[in-house]
Amino acid sequence: MLLEKIEDGFMATVPCKLNLYLKVLGKRADGYHELDTIMVAVSLCDRLVMLPNQSGRWNFQVKFADNRSLTPTDHAWDVPSDSRNLVLRALRSYVETMGVLNAGADLILHKGIPSMAGLGGGSADAAAALALAHLAWSNETSIAGIAGIARGLGSDINFFLESHANGYWAARCRGRGEKIEPVPIALTNASFLLMHPPEGCGTAAVFSKLDLNLTHPSGPEDLLLGLKSGNLQRVGRGLHNDLEAPAEQVTEWILRARKWIDRYDHHGQAMSGSGSARFCLCRSHEQAETINTEIQRESSVRAYAVQLWQQPSLEQQLLSIRGGRVLSPS
Would 38 be classed as within a structural domain? Predict the structure, then answer.
């Protein structure tokens, strides 16, 4: 996440996430599934602008980067602008928890991350809202308070707040995704081709098709070694998602996209989250750009050439905006 001071307010640019590895360990008593997943942030982003005031009201607008017409099955920009949106839920939770009186704001969410894609766009936006609220109504530079609020709101929100390690945003996430262990990585030249079909996957629908007897037996240790050593080939071999097989039962686009990407000579590919977006680890950023151009020219799917997200930690950024100094992304 990148925080900035703007005239009369603040702005957060927040990336999406890719699940390089996702294993479902079982069903929990609370209805969620126990997960073990390795996630990285990449440079497909949303922007949230907040102009805080003391009106006690939220004026919230959503704008979209992609203006193409949608089909009945394409929910890429099916993003509510009312109380269902995680941005507003996060802000209300913040002011109630922190005891902020008469808090209000004019908010504009610029969406570049498609919905029902497995990219964590809604969670990223909620994390942005918590960070901006912290800037607007607190003098603290610690993020412990907003991290605690995030754990009560959703599974992936904490990743966008707490996953910073040596300049990059990458973590091993457990529980339902809220237990964050930052992972130092050395993939300074990693680029991905990200592909999102014109049909989304509902998380509940995908999990309803999951057979725990058919999940991946091994852990992510080999992938982690590849990340820490900067070995792209090793990372590519370790890409895996237990939810891919059930997602194939939800929409034929999962298999169609996999076959499309397999035409190219890449290090490996996988689906992100519960789908329907998938990605491949490219041999260079030039290759990612080339595949992106070809896919968008030949099909109706969205494609993006993305790189690993690199920014300072949130605590460094909060300190910088309040008068301190950030020396480097690390």
Answer: yes
End-to-end CA distance of the chain: 14
Global pTM value:
0.95
Does 111 qualify as catalytic in the annotation?
no
Mean pLDDT of the region 260-278 = 96
Confidence of residue 326 (pLDDT cuts 50, 70, 90): very low
Which of 17, 74, 125, 242 is an active site residue?
17
Question: Active-site residue 17, yes or no?
Answer: yes
- CATH number, domain containing residue 242: 3.30.70.890
At 8-19, the pLDDT tens digits run: 999 999 999 999
Mean per-residue pLDDT, 62-83: 86
CATH code (residue 144):
3.30.230.10
Q: Cα(313)–Cα(171) distance, rounded to whole angstroms?
A: 13
Where is the domain boundary, 167, 183, 199? 183
pLDDT computed for residue 188 by the predictor: 81
| Domain-terminating residue out of 183, 206, 239 | 183
Res 324: pLDDT = 60
Number of domains in the chain: 2
Catalytic: which of 46, 74, 125, 156? 156
